[in-house]
Amino acid sequence: MSGIYIHIPFCKQACSYCDFHFSTNLKLQDALVEAICLELTSRAAYLEQPPLSIYFGGGSPSILSSRNLSKIFDSLHQSFDLSEINEITFESNPDDHTSENLLLWKKLGVSRLSIGIQSFIDRDLQLMNRAHDAREAEQCVTKARDAGFEHLTIDLIYGIPNQSFAEWKSNIEAAIKLGTDHISAYCLTIEPKTAMAYQIRTGLFNEKSDEEIEQEFLYLHQRLEEANFMHYEISNFARPGHLAQHNQNYWSGKKYLGIGPAAHSFDGNQKRSWNVSNNALYIKGIKTNDPNFDFEVLTVRDRYNEEIITGLRRKDGFNFGTWETSAQEEILRNIEQITRTQSEVIQCSGSNVAIHPEKWLVADHLIRALMLD
Ligand code: SF4
């Protein structure tokens, strides 16, 4: 069970809330793709077994020229046995859904499109400096279906300043109407160095309150479950049989290989490494066979704590049945302490621990209370 993540660090324009690694200067696109292909070749042995999933994220993979994207797929085919792949996800923006692009992505083998819609309201899209408009948000799914894509997931954002609760509800209805088999909905977090943080500091608009955000989250949970979506992770909803495979593997601590600037890799055991978040330094390192990356070695306890953190934001929770005895004893003590004051907030079944989806958004104190010393 392993996957490949490929980070494409370019975007058409900078969304005002974004703090991912990307550049709007496309001059390095050719050199960067060349470096990605070299890295794919040089690190092919890392996975030790055929990958099951590939995920193109960013940045905006949909910005890549057909020549460059084809080069990356050629490298993937040359370097890996792709016969067991069951999911190739490709992040795209609605404004890149031209018929040429869609047909190319389909032809290259993309099986699942993840579309960054975020909102169906022009005012929201302008406030966030998105490159698309409401009309493109509404049309992109139909265009993808016309090109032959069956598996589609769309992204929404809640907690958008100036958006009313009624508008948030209308966004959810518009998303349901599109009939995709998966929806991701992320809470807008105001990261300190972003344009949006500056706009809020200078009084252009106000951040939503915690109460407003919680109201939007609870409605999202309730309405999408009513519409036959399973809320299986804090930000992810799927119709039966359509859970995101790549992310599932990632959350359950499986091995993955991260390619491209800022991409993380994990050996499935204790070593996590990440490439430098700088396009020029990444290219230079790969070309000179002296890659710029950093790494950390996790202790057994670090791994258990990661299982707690990711597990308490998933429907499945986490299972401590195979942990070392001392860690099992500690988690049982922590659980007992929590349930003494907050009965029924944690659902335990044998060695499995979970919390109800309605509590995920406010689970930070529970996670802290459960974590091992
Ligand atoms: S398209 Fe995505 S990665 Fe690019 S700036 Fe916007 S949010 Fe960030």
Brief summary of the model shown:
By secondary structure, the chain is of the alpha/beta class.
Stretches where pLDDT is under 50 for at least 5 consecutive residues are none
- Kindly give the count of domains: 2
Strand content: 15-25%
Distance between the termini: 30 Å
Query: Rg from C-alpha positions?
Result: 21 Å
- What is the string of SSEs from the N terminus onward? EHEHEHEHHEHEHHEEHEEEHEHEHEEH
Share of helix, binned: 25-40%
Bound molecules: iron/sulfur cluster
Number of strand elements: 15
Largest β sheet strand count, sense and barrel closure: 9 strands, mixed
The outline comes out as globular
CATH superfamily of the largest domain: Aldolase class I
Number of helices: 13
The CATH class of the largest domain is identified as Alpha Beta
CATH fold category name of the largest domain: TIM Barrel
User: What is the averaged pLDDT score?
Assistant: 96
Q: From the helix content, strand content and strand pairing, which structural class follows?
A: alpha/beta
CATH architectural type of the largest domain: Alpha-Beta Barrel
Strands side by side in the biggest sheet? 7-8-6-5-4-3-2-1-9
How would you portray this structure in words?
The protein has 373 residues and is an alpha/beta fold. 39% of the residues lie in helices and 20% in strands. It has 13 helices and 15 strands. The radius of gyration is 21 Å and the shape is globular. The model has no long low-confidence stretch (mean pLDDT 96). Bound molecules: iron/sulfur cluster. Iron/sulfur cluster binds next to loops.
